[in-house]
Amino acid sequence: MILVCKNHVTDGLKETSAPHIEKVPTENKNCCTYCTEKAIYRLFYFGQISAKENSKVAQ
Asked: What is the pTM (predicted TM-score) of this model?
């Protein structure tokens, strides 16, 4: 799963091979994978994401 803010939805989609998206509940406190903004979408993926983003997700 990749969490993203409204500014990084396209970046997250580029990392997925079969994207599935849902809105994150408003009480969610998670940050975007690409920056420190609050995540508003949850991107589910099947397969692998790039090595660069995989290291961010693991943190």
From this structure: 0.49
